Batch of 2 targets.
Target 1
Amino acid sequence: MPTAFQDCYPEKFSHCYGCGKSNPQGHRLKSYWDGEETVARFTVRPEFSGGVPGHVFGGMVASLLDCHGTASAAAFAYRAAGRDLGDDGEFMRFVTASLKVDFLRPTPIGVELEIRGRLGGIEGRKVKVSLSLGAGGQACARGEMLAVQFRE
Amino acid sequence: MPTAFQDCYPEKFSHCYGCGKSNPQGHRLKSYWDGEETVARFTVRPEFSGGVPGHVFGGMVASLLDCHGTASAAAFAYRAAGRDLGDDGEFMRFVTASLKVDFLRPTPIGVELEIRGRLGGIEGRKVKVSLSLGAGGQACARGEMLAVQFRE
């Protein structure tokens, strides 16, 4: 198995409801490399419906893009620095400065969603990530994220 | 008690995890008029933390803005049409076309958050809503939404 980006976060940063390995009640989204892009796959459970059952609620779509986006930002920054995932146990943690989501069509519940990230650019501690979320090969949402490396 | 916007949605549109009155597992956010603006108040439970415990995860911030935003869009459109909340049981349902969230600072968990909406403009079936989310009088996030009236 390849290593998920979120599994490289230091323990103290691993409690996110959307993607933290140490949050047993959360979604525990897992993001991976796929060539130059990043990918996560996730099937939403029925209770996370929008107004009309059968479709994912908007906040969940934003959540999947957000967690995949910050993990992707860390991975892109890591690779740009010539390092490998988890090579020193000190994977960088990025936080979202801004996220724009375009909802293209309703996102179905109960089928596997594919969330993808593409590097938009790196400038110092800032990473731009272009995101998409689709089902069955059809795009349901697009996202543009500006992520910033967290400093303690 | 004033009537919450979400309690005016027809039953078939009331299953949203973020704000549907008929989703017992969801957050059931409630939005109200406050003069010319709209307001919702919500205290996030500890499991919805971000990477570091004590702060709300990004997807939850987006979710609160999204659900308050679409409910506000419906209320603004209703008022612009010279109608009152729930006067005919056929409250309009709006969906999000796009939502941009700027994360200004970490959003604390366990304290009451205030989410506010301001009308940006109405054009046919489209309503623009400016949103904010704050804690203790301090802004934590800002949002800009384009909502569209749902057509069956």
Target 2
Amino acid sequence: MPDPAVVLVSGGLDSATVLAIARAGGFECNALSFRYGQRHVHELTCARAVAQQLGAQRHVVVDFDLRTFGGSALTADIEVPKDRPVDEMAHGIPSTYVPARNTIFLSFALAWAETLDAQDVFIGVNALDYSGYPDCRPEYIAAFEAMANLATRASVEGRTRLRIHTPLISLTKARIIRRGAELGVDYAITSSCYDTLPDGAPCLRCDSCALRAKGFAEAGVVDPLLVRYGLHAR
Amino acid sequence: MPDPAVVLVSGGLDSATVLAIARAGGFECNALSFRYGQRHVHELTCARAVAQQLGAQRHVVVDFDLRTFGGSALTADIEVPKDRPVDEMAHGIPSTYVPARNTIFLSFALAWAETLDAQDVFIGVNALDYSGYPDCRPEYIAAFEAMANLATRASVEGRTRLRIHTPLISLTKARIIRRGAELGVDYAITSSCYDTLPDGAPCLRCDSCALRAKGFAEAGVVDPLLVRYGLHAR
């Protein structure tokens, strides 16, 4: 029987690739998404499609509302930055940073992993895109893993030793796209945009759209999401 | 202006005492509770009363449903243990343990602390009552604090250095009760029971009721909650 793993699936390009990698590694994948009051809730429709198409065993969406705390352009009434040069994104932490979001996501993953007796959690963090994001750095992930291995009944009883897998952490977007393409990921059903239009089309102007476009350009591949919506790269 | 702190308030005896301690320490207290699918949701009514009576600045309840994952007598269709001798509770982890609950709670506290620019989080964990609870041990708290100080924009920018305060971690229940009484905590408005009756009265048979009763007995004080409901200690 394959080992169970919890895979964080946002509906974006990165986490779809991670799910494909975890499946290729032989894991039974339990896909986990969050409805947290995000502006771009369209991504959850994509998460469902991704989980299904890439053979997740099951897909669970946990609901809570981070708008209670605010503090981010993704969860508060703060404008999403548009038309920024990609180089600029590498400096500082953008307003789309959501306080402690990855810590919250990984905590729920830990809870589910414990009830599944799973030792493996996959997350698509990347330390290159936004070098300033604190909760995408290897040292943060290592600290979370150390904490997790003191946190649960399963870890204390020695039944499981939790490992947080971050297969994309040091890959460029172009390499992520090439890896996903090899594994058969259909990026047409993913969504990266922070500010999707009502029909689910990407805005093509936010940081996340810009990084995605740069990645496809560098990979020398046309983004099938653009084809799907009849759009052209800017 | 007093420093802001986030205080986890469950509505129980311990966290009420912690809130009083944080207030006595001069903090502006932001009380945080969770509706997580717990069987004993009555505790949230108590949390609101405690936050108000002990002068919290505000009280926020975050909603999510851990019944999705199950795995605990508090969130799944598993019976709450009754009539166990207190000595027995010190061995192993009871079925009322909720997978990764404190990690999830502290993660939300971290998120709120970041948006408040708070450096201080208070939690009423205790390493004596259930010596087997993994996420009540000092080494777990230290590991969470280390992770938290790598997790947020505020910590990375050096604006805050998060500290997790656990003022009760090594106190007996009797000492906690005496300390709370000194600080004017009204334990009649708290609820510790895992399986409260429809009118909010404690069952007096679960582990949590038993520990509470032992604490009041050792402190030489009558539990005002019993008086409120016209009950007698068993």
